[in-house]
Amino acid sequence: MWTVSTYVLKKKLAGKKRYPLVLMLEPLFRCSLACAGCGKVQYPPHILKKQLTSEECFAAVDECGAPMVSIPGGEPLLHPQIVEIVNGLIARKKYIYLCTNALELKKRLPEFTPSKYLTFSVHLDGQREHHDFSVCREGGYDIAVEGIQEAVKRGFRVTTNATFFDGTDPNGVRAFFDEVMGMGVEGIVLSPGYSYDKAPDQNRFMGRARVRRLFRGILSNRKPTWKFNMSPLFLEFLMGNRNYECTPWGMPAYNIFGWQKPCYLLQEGYAESYKELLETTSWEEYGVASGNPKCANCMVSCGYETTAVIDGFGSVKGFLAMVRGNFSLYRDQHALKLLSEPAPHGPLVQIEEPARNLEEANV
Amino acid sequence: MTAEVLKYTLEQVEALELAPGSEHENLEGWVPTLAGDDNLRQALEKAFDYRGDVTLTLKSGERIEAYIFNRKTGPTLAESYVHYFTPSAPEKRKVSYAEIARLEFSGKDRAAGKHWEDWVKKYNERKAAGETNIALAPEALE
Fold first, then answer.
1. What ipTM goes with this model?
2. Is any Cβ of chain B less than 8 angstroms from the Cβ of A139?
3. Does A245 contact chain B (CB < 8 Å)?
4. pTM for this entry
5. CA gyration radius for chain A?
6. Residue B56 forms beta bridges with which residues?
7. Parallel, antiparallel, or unpaired: how do β-strands A157-164 and A253-255 relate?
8. Domain spanning B27-132: which CATH class is it, in words?
9. Which residues of B touch A204 (CB under 8 A)?
């Protein structure tokens, strides 16, 4: 927190208008899962076999200068130089979130050294049945949990990350929070799904009204044991308590094609350098205020958490709200009522369009 | 954002219950007619969006199997480029729009199919047949 707060303050004092907070470093697109509907890894085999070299990763990190580096993919543990990449980033004192499906985590842990700079961010979309169905692999949850438990035992920092789609049962998610906190993880990361252009299935993505209602149900009336590895102001944004505009340059993405324009989610072209990305992207064409339909349902952290973090560390009012958010349980009778509504369907995500009342969250 | 795309008002965006999503165009096997600059530019824009390999035939007669991952457009075809990887070369390459005579969407569209509904159907069938450890496996890379 200290690193991020001083970084934001320094940028603010320097009058910097656009700066990165987290570099989304995708060293490869290859994955060991084949999740139906995934919008990230549909490429021909020769592209899936390509990967960034360690040197390319370090050059991107050095050029960008973000204090945090998230390593998604694909599955980063499939990269043959992932240990070298991680160690190189630790040497640069970057806070790393290595995002993994954890199928290989337990086996690979001895190759890594625990560090305050390294966090394994394990993909878990919900309780066993829900997660396995979501990632299209029975047994996937148990393997991931074994990896989490071993990592915690060895002294690594571990968080879980979950993406929620339309039809998610908020009560199931809350029970899932109890489970993961019981595993000894530091915190939970969560996000609503986003309708990638390339996702084969386009019917499971929530619009903003539905996202707010779902997250208000999930995140209100919290249990004191739940910890979130996210800005409390971003969580308030998901719950419909705050309006934020997107900061697409806050979490730039770099992969084998270059610097992705304009953000981690949209692929509208590539720049050869971070500088070129900043200078040649028409930023005014993105974000909810632009009216761009591609941004219409996006409430994803890569666009909005930067805004929340800058708000939290950029003003006394924001800072106080952030502190308050860290200690609040967000008691809310209306949200309790949302939880008592019949679940849209059983514990598994199903495909039928739910025939439920579409009640706005913030009434 | 292209000119023909409608813009939303803020009120419309905030009230959205479901994301509108996007239509998936079936381009596999398509050979666009490249009569004029606009046709070529539009076809290469689709090639940039395509999640499969294409075959470019240059005016020199050279044929290139390529995955087009980027394009940078300028005022003339000679100043516009597609950037691509080939299956056999490790480095990024580029070619000017002005050199391209023919384009074919020759490779498999990797974004087609794989619907959530297909997985649900397959899962239920396999479960009903008594199968355990049901999973989808990534496609082979060879």
1. 0.90
2. yes
3. no
4. 0.91
5. 19
6. B64, B103
7. unpaired
8. mainly beta
9. 116
